[in-house]
Amino acid sequence: MNDQSDPRSSFETSGTVLEDALRMYEDAYEGAGFAAARTDRPFAYRFRGVGNDQISFRSTRFDARVRGEVELQDEYAVMWTADGGGRIDIGRDEAQLRPGSPMMFPTGRPFVFELADVRQSLVQFERTHLEEMAAELHGVQPGPLVFDHTAAPRPEDLRVWNQQVQRAAGVVLGSPPVSVIGLAEIARATALALLKTFPHRLLAPQVPLPQGATGRVREAVEYMHAFAHTPISTTDVADHVGLSVRGLQQAFQRQVGTAPNSMLRGIRLDRIREELRRGAPGELTVAAVAVRWGFAHLGRFSAAYATRFGEYPRDTLQA
Q1: Which residues contact residue 174 at a Cβ distance below 8 angstroms, ignoring those fewer than 6 apart?
Q2: CA nearest 216: which of 246, 232, 233, 238?
Q3: What's the rounded Cα separation, in Å, for the pair 21 and 47?
Q4: What is the spatial distance between Cα 294 and Cα 14, in angstroms, rounded to a whole number?
Q5: By CB neighbour count within 10 A (0-12 exposed, 13-18 middle, 19+ buried), where does 46 fall?
Q6: Helix/strand/coil for 161
Q7: 3-state helix, strand, coil in the chain (%, to 5)
Q8: What is the pLDDT of residues 68-87, one digit of tens each?
Q9: Relative to the CA of 155, which of 11, 39, 139, 277 has its CA 20 to 30 Å away?
């Protein structure tokens, strides 16, 4: 991309050497055991990816038969073919690929695939982003998503999904520059369309409740866990449980011995620690993670983090 303010990045490669293609695809999908055999077509491949750390579009041409194992650890993906076909999740919940029918990749475990002479497209979402959208949609704490790739979406839902994908492709793959806000909006709309189209369940982890929390205090803590990734305040929490801010503060002090804003800050610090532990120094920064979770002053954030965990956030990221 030419515009330095454009948040998209792109990668494209092509060729006619089968071994080069296998190495590239193994790297791109963190796969293993990729093997290929030529068909009656002259072999050629082409791969293109465009997007950012929330949403990306990928397209593939592969004129051969290929088999391998992949596991999507940091993303969720919807795939469809315009030509060719194959099988997904061989030996387990096997599903056949049919041109024009989108399918979720299996999640949470490795799966074996076999494709032949495909023209394939994918929409991929960063794992945390989609899980936060699902938590917001379902009103629960973020957790892993499990999609049923063997279940066919309803035709009316697929129509909405296809329309949204077309709109998103026009933005993500289009030549005009895209703003950070514009790309975030299209990523959010496409993520919500995916969640409303493809059958799934959310494995929400058990919310850790402080001892003594009952009634509205318990409900408030559960709400904080579910929506900590959004810019909620204690006023929003109080409104949700039907108390005044002062009433919420008194209830928290009486039942759990702390203030509601302190608990919300602690939940967000815990989430930041989880994200820093998963990340790598070259892939994200402490400042970016802190701002995303609502900490605008980096010095005060670092001090609060060190008080809670006994180390500075940069140490967690480096480790």
Answers
A1: none
A2: 238
A3: 9
A4: 42
A5: middle
A6: helix
A7: 40, 25, 35
A8: 999 887 899 999 999 999 99
A9: 139
